[in-house]
């Protein structure tokens, strides 16, 4: 049996209410909302801008007229203009949280000395000026390109296309707005104070959420957000001379490999919170349709299944790595985004009666999830040695080797690779299986969301520094390390010619990952690490025409099938630059551990026979 020991499953009930952003709202009666999906034979239905015909979930009774009128505004694309965000104020988060800025770090990194210490002030000054004007020019080009990638729907900006590559002969779906790809674009716009595009994106993708899409007669779960959508212009029904714009979502039913985009809804929640924090426009978060959208995503993720673990069970390719790479099961990236989305939703859900069950389930899951990841996904030298000496086939509640991991699974590369100082979360955990590959995004986002402890967060950054030559080398950042090679590549990827060793998802280098690295480094007050990576990227990205990814062990070549002018490469770079220039702004993406969760977590640790980490102080109880 692989479940937690009985002592860990002490029955505990969470009583605390989630903090809500604004408490003076009236919410609809009842939370058990039924959603109506339009039936019919057509597999593909589209959102039309020119017509009032939209497939919305049935809207519950609304107490407040104010909310009621807002709800109807969302039915028309034109209303979004009327609800212009100009007038919103960005929260003033000035303070002592962070003092230095990236330019200073760049100088110190490069010379090994603080500026003007060698008596070569003029040389340094000149070099610094040249560098910063080059950097300014690259930044300006990036902004121009980002703006060129904006997609309009009914006259309003709703997103950015994945790539704007004029050299590419087959566009595939790179002309679509991908939910995950838009996140750095959206953050860049928020940081610039341009809120409308993010607001429109949030509302339009919300409309697509409950849309019925099928694959061979099977519909995905309600609450699933599409992987991407496209704005199409089609002839107006009954009028050959006119056209209309429609939004056409793809939930994976057209995607290569038909993979379900589990991460879309999680990113949507994270972006929604960032929008609220950045713009100060809480009215969007309070809207009944937005609240319903959050709950639908949560209900889908928190639904009971057959699984014994608190981690989210998914099929292969459910996230940034959206093709077969052996990440099915409980991949780290999904767990980190899941945790982050739960933390963000917790702040945005009102503690009204109708949501109490959902909030309780959410809190319980947060505690169980962080316990599980911190305990079982974590590896460092000490833990590796523990695994090396594991006994197997233990049948008992208090087994040390709960998942029956055979020590021979420790890959030879890791024995050499693991630094003395540092550690990381492994890629996946299943019965008798640990995927020891280092997946960057999952590790970065575990730091950003406080899924891991402060010590573990610092250890992850220590490992990145220690393994710089492997993880960054000539281009940040390796999507995963190491690559699958030989027979392993054949079996796990199905001999995928796009995912050959050290290419694309299989150990390729993705510059978009810079922004998540930057947020993680700022959170741990170590921005100089990110600044160093940005500097490396900056030397090539513009010249190389902003590639999607780089190939080879050191990231020396532009990827074999890499798109150029890839939007999230451009936006990721911009977000990193903006955050390093003003690190306080990164707070819109971070979540800190809540004291109630910490207490509950300590409780679990104390009741865990193997490890004692904290005081037995909590009066709060949880069901786990
Ligand atoms: C590739 C990537 C995916 C990305 C998409 C659009 O499929 O794997 O993460 O969203 O391209 O850029």
TrEMBL record:
The keyword Lipoprotein does not apply. The keyword DNA repair does not apply. It catalyses: Hydrolysis of terminal non-reducing beta-D-fructofuranoside residues in beta-D-fructofuranosides. It is an enzyme of class 3 (hydrolase). GO terms for biological process: sucrose catabolic process. InterPro entries: 6-hairpin_glycosidase_sf, 6hp_glycosidase-like_sf, Glyco_hydro_100. Belongs to the glycosyl hydrolase 100 family. This is Alkaline/neutral invertase. It comes from Deinandra increscens subsp. villosa. The lineage of its organism: Eukaryota, Viridiplantae, Streptophyta, Embryophyta, Tracheophyta.
């Amino acid at each position: 049996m692989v479940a937690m020991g009985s002592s860990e499953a002490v029955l505990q009930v969470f009583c605390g209410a989630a903090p809500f952003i604004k408490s003076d709202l009236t919410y609809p009666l009842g939370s058990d909302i039924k959603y109506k999906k339009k039936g019919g034979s057509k597999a593909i239905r589209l959102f039309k801008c020119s017509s009032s015909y939209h497939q919305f979930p049935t809207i519950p009774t609304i107490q407040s007229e104010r909310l009621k009128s807002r709800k109807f505004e969302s039915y028309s694309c034109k209303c979004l203009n009327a609800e212009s965000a100009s007038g919103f104020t960005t929260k003033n988060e000035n303070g002592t949280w962070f003092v230095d800025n990236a330019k200073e770090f760049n100088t110190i990194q490069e010379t090994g000395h603080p500026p003007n210490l060698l008596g070569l002030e003029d040389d340094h000054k000149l070099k610094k000026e040249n560098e910063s004007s080059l950097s300014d020019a690259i930044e300006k080009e990036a902004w121009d390109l980002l703006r060129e990638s904006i997609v309009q729907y009914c006259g309003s900006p709703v997103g950015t296309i994945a790539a704007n590559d004029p050299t590419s002969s087959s566009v595939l779906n790179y002309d679509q707005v991908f939910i995950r790809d838009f996140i750095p674009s959206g953050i860049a716009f928020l940081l610039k104070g341009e809120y409308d595009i993010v607001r429109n994106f949030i509302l339009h993708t919300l409309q697509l959420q409950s849309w019925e899409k099928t694959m061979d007669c099977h519909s995905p779960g309600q609450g699933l957000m599409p992987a991407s959508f496209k704005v199409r212009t089609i002839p107006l029904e009954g009028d050959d001379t006119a056209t209309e714009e429609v939004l056409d979502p793809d939930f994976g039913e057209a995607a290569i490999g038909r993979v379900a985009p589990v991460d879309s809804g999680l990113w949507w929640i994270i972006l929604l919170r960032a929008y609220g924090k950045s713009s100060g426009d809480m009215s969007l978060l309070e809207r009944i349709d937005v609240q319903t959208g959050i709950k639908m995503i949560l209900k889908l993720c928190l639904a009971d299944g057959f699984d014994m673990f608190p981690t989210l069970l998914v099929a292969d390719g459910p996230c940034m790595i959206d093709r077969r790479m052996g990440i099915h099961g409980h991949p780290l990236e999904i767990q980190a985004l899941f945790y982050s989305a739960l933390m963000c939703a917790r702040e945005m859900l009102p503690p009204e009666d109708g949501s109490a069950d959902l909030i309780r389930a959410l809190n319980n899951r947060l505690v169980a999830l962080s316990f599980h990841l911190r305990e079982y996904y974590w590896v460092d030298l000490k833990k590796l040695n523990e695994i090396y000496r594991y006994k197997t086939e233990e049948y008992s509640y208090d087994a040390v080797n709960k998942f029956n991991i055979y020590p021979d699974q420790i890959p030879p590369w890791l024995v050499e690779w693991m630094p003395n100082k540092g550690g990381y979360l492994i890629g996946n955990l299943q019965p008798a299986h640990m995927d020891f590959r280092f997946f960057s995004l999952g590790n970065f986002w575990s730091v950003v969301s406080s899924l891991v402890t402060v010590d573990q967060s610092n250890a992850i950054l220590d490992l990145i520094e220690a393994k710089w030559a492997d993880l960054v080398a000539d281009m940040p950042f390796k999507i995963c390390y190491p690559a699958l090679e030989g027979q392993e590549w054949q079996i796990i990827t199905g001999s995928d010619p796009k995912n050959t060793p050290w290419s694309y998802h299989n150990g390729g280098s993705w510059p978009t990952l810079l922004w998540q690295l930057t947020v993680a480094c700022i959170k741990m007050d170590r921005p100089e690490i990110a600044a160093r990576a940005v500097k490396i990227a900056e030397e090539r990205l513009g010249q190389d025409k902003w590639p999607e990814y780089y190939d080879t062990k050191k990231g020396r070549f532009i990827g074999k099938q890499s798109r150029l002018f890839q939007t999230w490469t451009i936006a990721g770079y911009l977000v990193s630059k903006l955050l390093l220039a003003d690190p306080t702004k990164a707070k819109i993406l971070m979540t800190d551990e809540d004291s109630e969760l910490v207490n509950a977590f300590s409780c679990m640790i104390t009741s865990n026979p193997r490890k004692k980490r904290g005081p037995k102080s909590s009066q709060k109880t949880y069901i786990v």
